[in-house]
């Protein structure tokens, strides 16, 4: 018997009607003769509301307590959805992350799944039950509840698909698939029929909210073909898989953007490499994610260093830099917030030189100043002023002709 893992996001379970509608979708799958495991998010904007509540009480709440709070959101959904299925005459059972055997490391609010013990789920599947699991959460060795980072329910679904050796994994969401850019802001954005793991990974990492990046990483590592589609409209979605056969002629396949970036600049860092590595080790130990790094060896032995972080990490980064200033050996530091990252992604870049140059040229022509750059084989990212982010994305989307219909080179 085939096994399907289906994941439904917040909008798909946003109210009672949507929950009933989702129950029908699940029943359709069950009727095809499949075993069904369902992973759900918190209802609608519940997680945001819980975050807001916490912030009314503390501007710097403990990450452990945030996990305690946020993990309640998904627990509400699993119970209601299971009731909806039971009401329709189907046998179903719900489990929280820890009940489902989802083990994680102890990094609160951004924990990685380390292991899944799938026996319990399998037992209930063999009992003909639909198994409903709370996304986004797990448990540490010490029995502490953790969450996987915002958007982490996707990762729960893919990790379960891997652990259960599922035959398919479908991510149901409020858009009809993966687009060349965010269709809410870029009107010409176009749905892609398929995209490779690597391209999707870059898109997700660079700000496309449609999938949690770690979910894509899991899918790639375990070679799980993922489908992203709409829970409301019955139209075909986007398949994420290893090899993408169509559209090879398109060099750039997506434009991603992300706001709330801060650039930190450290002046006159002494002792070159040694202190450079100490800075990043110190930040990493506190789980500060550093993105783009630029280092300049200029006057004498002194190094100037810039790196970008998310605004959310600014306060902690400032604390760390102030605290370790003498040990890390630098004169002073400055920061600039109000920045955004705009990136172009496509595997075709590997074999086509000049893509970055074209990007810089078109941004310059439009008076968009580039503050930082980073590249990989399949992406170019720029940090610019946040006020120009959407303009930049639209201009690049048009320049690289992403609105044109897919065509096959063969
Ligand atoms: N409810 C969590 C969030 O809003 C996890 C998820 O939806 O994937 O981030
Ligand atoms: Mg999501």
List the helices and strands and how they pair.
Layout: E1 3-8, H1 16-31, E2 35-40, H2 46-57, H3 63-87, E3 92-95, E4 102-104, E5 113-116, H4 119-126, E6 130-134, E7 137-139, E8 145-147, H5 153-163, E9 168-173, E10 194-196, H6 197-205, H7 213-221, E11 226-230, E12 238-241, E13 254-269, H8 272-285, E14 293-297, E15 303-310, H9 314-328, E16 330-345, H10 355-365, E17 372-376, E18 379-385, H11 389-399
Parallel strand pairs: 1-2, 1-9, 2-6, 3-6, 9-11, 10-12
Antiparallel strand pairs: 4-5, 7-8, 11-12, 13-15, 13-16, 14-15, 16-18, 17-18
Helix pairs in contact: 1-3, 2-3, 5-7, 6-7, 8-9
Bound molecules: aspartic acid (ASP) and magnesium ion.
Magnesium ion binds at residues 9, 151, 154.
Structural class: alpha/beta
Global shape? globular
Beta strands, count: 18
Oligomer: single chain
Main sheet: strand order:
3-6-2-1-9-11-12-10
Largest sheet: 8 strands, mixed
The N- and C-terminal alpha carbons lie at a distance of 37 Å
Annotated CATH architecture of the largest domain: 3-Layer(aba) Sandwich
Pattern of helices and strands: EHEHHEEEHEEEHEEHHEEEHEEHEHEEH
| H/I helix tally | 11
Mean pLDDT, as a whole number? 93
Task: Identify the CATH class of the largest domain.
Answer: Alpha Beta
Rg, rounded, reads 23 Å
- Give the CATH superfamily of the largest domain: Acetylglutamate kinase-like
Number of domains: 2
Task: Report low-confidence residues grouped into runs of 5 or more.
Answer: none
The portion of residues forming beta strands comes to 25-35%
Share of helix among residues? 25-40%
Indicate the CATH topology of the largest domain.
Carbamate kinase
Give the cofactors and ligands.
aspartic acid, magnesium ion
